Amino acid sequence: MAGENRNFRVRLLTKTCQMKRVKDILARKGTAITSVSPTTTVLEALKIMAEQNIGSIVVLEGKEILGIMTERDYSRKVILKGKSSTDTPVSEIMSTDFPRLTPQDTIEQCMQLMSEKNIRYLPVYDDGELSGIISINDVVKETILIQQETISQLKDYLHASL
């Protein structure tokens, strides 16, 4: 029994300590990317975002990502500056210069980048191609799943010890 408990503890610690990665988020949520061209008006982009219940939209020119327009961009760069949503193209307000993530990057790296740069969305590149977008909400969900797995494993361990 003592050896069995020790083996379980080793398995529990190994599984708990395994780092979750960006690829785990993309596997759960999918890799669909909603995009618009740089000339799309802010109003058109907002309508698409509302229809799909998303908080950001990728601005693409061909296959090249130019930036991401977010709800924050809208509120700070259109509403607060008195611009018109119907006349302003997304290229005028989109955020640019996002860090480049890969599917192999860890959830911890995402949290650190989002916190340091005060951003809520990160593009994910696989072999140089845009393969998805992850949000702070995706990172929080994955963190909660990790915690639930750990709690479940600890409960199993405690019940096995009794």
List the helices and strands and how they pair.
Blueprint: H1 2-17, H2 22-29, E1 35-36, H3 42-52, E2 56-61, E3 64-70, H4 71-79, H5 90-93, H6 107-117, E4 121-126, E5 129-135, H7 136-161
Parallel strand pairs: 1-2
Antiparallel strand pairs: 2-3, 4-5
Helix pairs in contact: 1-7, 6-7
Give a short synopsis of this structure.
The chain has helices spanning about 1-15, 20-30, 40-50, 70-80, 90-95, 105-115, 135-160, and strands spanning about 35, 55-60, 65-70, 120-125, 130-135. With about 160 residues, it is an alpha+beta fold. It has one domain: CBS-domain.
Based on the coordinates given, report the CATH architecture.
Roll
Report Rg: 20 Å
What would you call the structural class?
Answer: alpha+beta
What is the CATH homologous superfamily assignment? CBS-domain
Tally the helices. Answer: 7
CATH topology: CBS-domain
Distance between the termini: 11 Å
Which stretches of 5+ consecutive residues score pLDDT under 50? none
Major β-sheet annotation: 3 strands, mixed
What is the strand arrangement across the widest sheet? Answer: 1-2-3
Tell me the count of domains: 1
What's the pLDDT, averaged over the residues? Answer: 88
User: CATH first level: which class?
Assistant: Alpha Beta
Shape: elongated
Q: Bin the helical content.
A: 40-55%
Query: How would you describe the oligomerization state of the chains in this entry?
Result: single chain
Would you list the SSEs in sequence order as H and E? HHEHEEHHHEEH
Percent of residues in beta strands: 15-25%
Number of strands: 5
